[in-house]
Each structure stands twice: as structure tokens, then as C-alpha cells.
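pinned: reference chain
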Amino acid sequence: MDPVPALDEPLKKVLGPATAKVMAEHLGLHTVGDLLHHYPRRYEERGQLTHLADLPMDEHVTVVAQVADARLHTFASAKAPRGKGQRLEVTITDGSGRLQLVFFGAGVHKPHKELLPGTRAMFAGKVSVFNRRVQLAHPAYELLRGDAEETVETWAGALIPIYPATAKLESWKIGKALQTVLPSAQEAVDPLPDSLRAGRGLVALPEALLKIHRPHTKADIEDARARLKWDEAFVLQVALARRRHADAQLPAVARRPEPDGLLAAFDDRLPFTLTEGQQKVSAEIFTDLATEHPMHRLLQGEVGSGKTMVALRAMLAVVDAGGQAAMLAPTEVLAQQHHRSVTEMMGELAEGGMLGGAETGTKVTLLTGSMGTAARRQALLDLATAEAGIVIGTHALIEDKVKFHDLGLVVVDEQHRFGVEQRDALRGKGKQPPHLLVMTATPIPRTVAMTVFGDLETSVLDQLPAGRSPIASHVVPAADKPHFLARAWERVREEVANGHQAYVVCPRIGDEEDDPKKSGRKKPPEDEAEKRPPLAVLDIAEQLARGPLKGLGVEVLHGRMQPEDKDAVMRRFTAGEVDVLVATTVIEVGVNVPNATAMVIMDADRFGVSQLHQLRGRVGRGSAPGLCLLVTEMPEASAARQRLGAVAGTLDGFELSRIDLEQRREGDVLGQAQSGTRSSLRMLAVIEDEEIIAEAREEAARIVAADPDLTGLPALRTALDALLDEEREQYLEKG
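pinned: its C-alpha cells
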């Protein structure tokens, strides 16, 4: 039997079953290699102590500090009625602030002996507040003693790695475990080609691992980080480059529009000219469609930048060339909305084969799960016979029964709402792989696009079409200034009086699905804003209709209504028969009512930055200016209020997506949110390391072009296999 490579050795063999179990369950570390790649979060210098002045509440922290004083108190309690209870209070300081540690009962003896004034130690525990004082209760601690042969200078200057830890396993225990496995770092196989490493002056992988865990100087840490960031960026970009290379080998039918066909007829009847951005992006798409391998393009466009128009022109070009186009929308409301706007934009061109339809026209069919049997049968027939050149639908399009005559283009709207399986199932309905256009109104910073959607070419629409109005956004602090909320409802009445309409958005529906047990419990007042259930559509609609918006036409829209009821409400709102629509986020994407000018978002702090930006994009779609009011009960100093301030402060979605990413950290963008596995990015920060990602992408493309199977780079192949376990590969296919 071959010996197990050192880095694949299970931790339980090296560290013992108890420690290995905690590492597996709480940190997801199973092998020696996993542990070597569990990098320190930061480093403490013994000579320069942490800032106790700004400890985060309720977080598990590690601090290095000196004991200022220690006092043992006795007290009476239920367990120790005769005044025999003991409490040890230790005050520690680091020059920036002081912090109290408390130990109780039998737990006081050891620290009482060891934590004498003047002693330095590392302390780890959860920050809490008792009697208005910040404290650590029963912290774990490790005394910092200099060995006899160490001089005071080297002892004070040593860098102590602080690891991402858990309550079950303190940072220094992880550090000790790492010292045990560190010799195995010599066996680490280096994935970077020698020429690349030498050309960029990067240290070898074993050296980088030693320096990250046992640095002697800050320069060591910099060297190690530079190298490990390159590893992550490069291996991921090679995986994506191989995806693109494989896609480029697939055959596809080139689709070129007729010079005087459907697309030309459509362009002739447009009442406006396309923006420069729309023309540029359309040209990129038409170039892709004319090639004999499938287009894979991501179209990002600000809310209201005219993505639907660009997608429709691409679909018409494919129909012109004898193919069919399918548009996949995430919800029925959105599919119906797209169907309505596409047929309106096309006019008689959408009535091909019907009386009054244009000769060059084609049929535009809708297919959703809630359609009646007869309508559904007709839609399926239209697709199979090519009667319908364009179909717009929900995931009902993916079902086995759906057959196309010749599917040439798939347009996926709001990519993040579809899994790979769904996208691939639809792509599998073409005789040859169809072209693919993925659209998102969530602006994605360039580096994230290169990392998450790296298998797609990217086009960006960043100008608004002529006639779109600016949107004024304001935060309404309902708890601090209740009269601001009263004024918000007056503003809604003013908009309606001027012939316009408004949305009110709530985070929750508020029907039987909500748990009465939870809402029945009485909360202390300081928890109210934080802990009370989010405001609900059904409650707010009733309160508004009886109170501040009495006399206006108020209706509700949410995801658990019957499809025909949803459609009826949407039609009435679009026709101007409803003044105020109280809705959940079902209106977040794609709903287009130019006469709606105001939006009030209740409990705005419960929504993410990009979601608020999406919602806001529903107003100001006509010639009248838009107004968006973000209502919150969060206190002024809270992070939630700062986030809302950022949204109110800019209409630039790309700027907001950067803020969003910096707040949520990359792990959410690249990790669980995308793939269900732990993020492979431990060292790389997507926003800060833009240059590394861009350079790694170029290097990866060059290497894959020269050697697609990486036959000459076995170590890179090994690293790639480690990255691309089953789930990860799936996720990369999704983009």
C-alpha cells in the first residue's frame, strides 16, 4: 500500500481524536493540508498590546494584555448561602483601555495564583456587558513567559499568530496544533509554474507556509501573503480559463440577422434611438452570435438601463436567422411583465401568422406553471412547430414535455436566482448548444465578475436611456423622529394627488405562516427594533387604508397569492386603477410602471444593499422624478443606519455593490451563497486584490491556451482537483 502523502494525513492520526473532532466540526479542517491552509487572521506583538478600547460586543476575541490588579470577593448566593461564594475580578490593561475579567466558584483558584499584577498573558473569551461594564467571563488564558535564553527584546518583538478560532478551540491551541504539523509544509506541492513564480519574485509554497505561521518579521508575513494570494487567484482562474476553453470547443449554429428582416423592421419602428451603451453591447452580442461556438455572455446593467431592449434585439436576430429564443425569468410576475413589455415593444411584429400581424413578424408565447391546460397545450405546440419564435417563461420552460423546433438562444434574467441544473436543462433543449446571454441588474464589481462569473464574457450597460428621471432617496428615522414618518405618508398622498402612484414595500407577508408563539412573547423595549418581527404587508396595508392613506386605492401583492390574482392586481396597478401597492420584494425585479413615482420601504434595515437598490429602481421610470424613502427604527450610530445612508447617498449601483461586498466580506459572495461549500478564498480579498486577480486571469488564459490539459504541469492539476470537488465544479459551471 502506498503511504498517504503527508498533507493528506487525517488530523486525528496526528493530533488525537478529541482535537481533530473539534477542528472538523467547528472549523471544517480534516487533513494536515487543511490545517496548514488555516491562516492567522492577524498577528499580535507582545511588545505592542491590542486595543482594549474598541472590542466588538458579543464576539469571541483574543487579546494580549497585562494584569493591573486582581481582587477576590466572597458573596452569599443560593449555592453558597453562608457567604462562601467566591468571585475573582481581574483588571487587565493594554495602554489603550482597561477590561475586567471575572472568574467564579472553583474556577477562581488557578487564576488567583497565576494572574498576579504585572503578569502578561493572552486572554480569549466572548465580550459581554454586566452592570454597564465590558467584561470577559471565565476567559481562557495563556501566560506569556520568556524562556531564559530569550532576551527581553526578542521576546517582546515576537509575532504571535491569532487564528480564526471558536469557543471550543482557542487561537493558541490551534497555534500549538500547527507547530505539530508545520514540518509537513516541506512536502507541499507547488502549483505555480516555476517561470511564473520566478518572474513575479514569489517565494516557494513550503517557505510561504512556514512564514505565514511562524514569521520572524513583518516582511515574512508580506512575502507569505503575496505568494498565497497568487495561489488562490491563479488556481481559480485556471479552472475558469479551462471552462471557457472547453466551451469554445463546442459547436453552435452561427446566427446572423437578415439585412431586411425582423430585427431591421423592429429597429425602424422604435420611437427613440438606442443609447451608445446599448449599441456597443448589441454589437458585442451580434459578433458572438455570428460565431460557430456558443456565446457565453454576462450582461450587467443598472436598474432601468435598457437590458430588456438589448436582449430582445438579440432574440430577434436569432429568429431572423431561423432559430428560436427562450427567456427564463425567476417569477411568474416577472415572466408576465416581460411578456407584456416585449409584445408592446414589438407591436404587430409580435403577431406573426395572425390577422393584422406583420409579414416579417413572429409569435411571442408565454409559458408558466399556472397556465390553463388549453393555453399550455397551445404554447407547447407553438414551440414544437416553430410557430413561436420567442418564448418567455418561468422554470416551466425546463420541463421534459417542452420541445423546441430549433432553440438558438437562451436568455437568463436575474442569474443569481437560477441553479446550474436549471440553466443546463434549458441549454440541453437545443439540437446543438444554444447561445447563452445571462442578465443581472445587480451590479457586480469587475473583480467579482472575473472571479464568480469568470467563465462568461462581460458586457456592462452603465448609462440610463433618455427620459429616465433621477430618484431622490432619504432615510426616515421612525423611532428618533416619528414626525418624519407622518411626513412620508403626506408625500405619498401628494404624489397620488398629482396623478402618480406609489409602492410600499415590507419584508414579510404576515399571514398564517408567521409563528404566533414567537410574536406573543413580551420583549424588553431596547430589543423592540432589533427583535420584533419584521413589518408585514397585510398589517401595514390595513393600517394605511384606515389611517394615513384613508380614501386612496390601496391593494396588496405578495408571493403566496394565486397567480391569476397577482396578475389581476399587477394589471390594475399598471392601468393606474390602484393608487398604492403594498408589496413584498416580488416587485424587486423587472416590474415596470412608469407612472409609479414614490416608494416607501418599511424596515429598510432588513434588506441588503443591492436589494434596496433593485427595489428603488422600480420608481422614476417615467418622465416624473422618483422618490424613495427608507424607513428604519435603527439608532443613528448603528451599522444598519450607515448602510442605509450609503444607499441614500448614491445611485451608482457599482459603488453600492463595493460597499455591500466590503461589509459582507467575500466569503458570502464566493462561498456558501454561490456554491454551498466553504469559500476557497482564505487570503484573497476580492476588492483589494483587483490587480492580482486581473494578472492571474491573463496568466491562466496564456497557460491554458498553450496546454489545455495541463499535461506539463502535474502539480497545478493536483491543486485544481483539490479545488474542484464535485460541488465546486458544478458551481463553476453556473458562473
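why pinned: The two ends are 40 Å apart (CA to CA). The chain has 29 helices and 21 strands.
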